[in-house]
Amino acid sequence: MRQLRIEHLEKRHQGQIILHNINLTIQQGEFVVFVGPSGCGKTTLLRSLAGLEDIHGGRILLDERDVSEASPIEREVAMVFQSYALYPHLSVFENLAFPLRVAKLPEAQIVAAVHAAAESLQLTAYLRHKPGMLSGGQRQRVAIGRAIVRKPAIFLFDEPLSNLDAGLRGSMRQEISRLHRTLGVTTLYVTHDQIEAMTMADRIVVLNKGRIEQSGTPQELYFQPRSLFVAQFIGHPQINTFATAIEHQRDGRLQLALPSLPHIPLLTLSEPPLSDNVTLAIRPEHILLSPTATGIEGELPFEVGNVEWQGNQSMLYGEIGGQPACCVTADYIDRSQLSRCYVRFPADRILLFDAGGKRCVTYPVPPSVCRPE
Questions:
Q1: Is 131 in the same domain as 233?
Q2: How distant is the alpha carbon of residue 197 from its chain centre?
Q3: Are residues 172 and 290 in the same domain?
Q4: Domain edge (last residue) among 224, 255, 286
Q5: CB of 91 closer than 8 Å to CB of 133
Q6: Nearest CA to 300 among 337, 331, 259, 271?
Q7: Using CB atoms within 10 A of its CB, is residue 196 exposed (0-12), middle (13-18) or buried (19+)?
Q8: Are residues 290 and 327 in the same domain?
Q9: Residue 326 β-bridge partners
Q10: Does residue 254 sit in the same domain as residue 128?
Q11: How many domains is the chain built from?
């Protein structure tokens, strides 16, 4: 069992804290994706685990062995960089063979390992080519193959698909996921791309200002974010947020209202917020939409400003109670025929956050949605 454990990891640069008290345990075979805004410490964390950056506190343990000060080769990790980092003067064969030649392995073993990696990545026909003769996707496969031949305990990917166009990114996502299933090697992956994170990860770790904001499955982060930051960061289009007031509260229940609009139905609190000013959040696809008023309690007018039809869905942009909002529906909506419609917020889809951004109301998500069999 190859377990990676990060304990109280700290990283500073010129007196500024880059990573603060990072604690994380990663089991063998997990595919863990690190996401967060630019400058949050994602790549620094990956480079620290690879041994390319010194740390200033804490420990990095591989199977209880402290590798905090070990060289990259001693850590049994292989890193795939955003820029591919291939040697332009070497053939694909020699690029794949390079780490094995550094390790002084026998030539027969090198040839066998290179051909095995090339076959798994569909590169056999390109072994005599130089990197400049390859497409971006092929160069990325060579970079991945160079990591594979080392047979590491852990793969580290630093935004490996960011230089590819949308079509290639989709096919390479499938390729990396297939390799992970086939090889079963623990994989740590940094990305800015929501689709990569949600579709590839067993677990997503959201970083914010050098701290772990939340760690969990894609479903947990999407449906049960612990903070407003996570709710807003995960999901596209972004979750709707509304400045909301608590008008009255009794017996653990509260009445919410948006400015100048009717009441939203009563909600049940897990614990009372410290302030009457809270943020109500709901995902665009969870809003119930009606082209005309139905008279149902809690119905709110939605002033439609623009409609984007994407073939399989319509995205409506506008305002609810004077605040920006987005709704998603599978129906085709003709913008020229609609300037106002009506919406309702299902109580079991509402997320409520206190003034500090901490989630203060939780509702169970239907098991069939949150935890598919």
A1: no
A2: 4
A3: no
A4: 224
A5: no
A6: 259
A7: buried
A8: yes
A9: 317
A10: no
A11: 2
Asked if 218 and 308 sit in the same domain, the reply is: no
Same domain, 144 and 237: no
User: What CATH number is given to the structural domain containing 238?
Assistant: 2.40.50.140
| pLDDT single digits (tens) 146-199 | 999 988 999 999 999 888 888 788 888 998 999 899 999 999 999 998 889 999
Residue range of the domain that includes 197: 4-224
pLDDT single digits (tens) 230-250: 999 999 899 999 988 777 666
Q: Which residue has the tokens 């004077």?
A: 322
Q: Which whole-number Å values give the CA distances from 350 to 96, 222, 226, 257, 269, in the listed order? A: 51, 13, 13, 13, 12
Q: Are residues 206 and 263 in the same domain?
A: no
| 219 plus 241 within the same structural domain | no
- Chosen domain end from 157, 190, 224: 224
More reliable by pLDDT, 364 or 252: 252
Of 183, 196, 90, nearest in space to 143 by CA: 90
**The 359-361 sheet, strands edge to edge:** 263-268, 253-257, 240-250, 277-282, 351-353, 359-361
* CB neighbourhood size of 18 (10 A): 20
Is residue 44 classed as helix, strand or coil in its secondary structure?
Answer: helix
Tens of pLDDT, residues 253-281:
666 767 666 666 556 665 666 677 889 99
Residue type, 231: A
Q: Collect all residues with Cβ–Cβ distance below 8 Å to 365 and sequence separation of at least 6.
A: 223, 224, 348
Residue linked to tokens 């807003």: 232
Q: CA–CA separation, 108 vs 96, rounded Å? A: 14
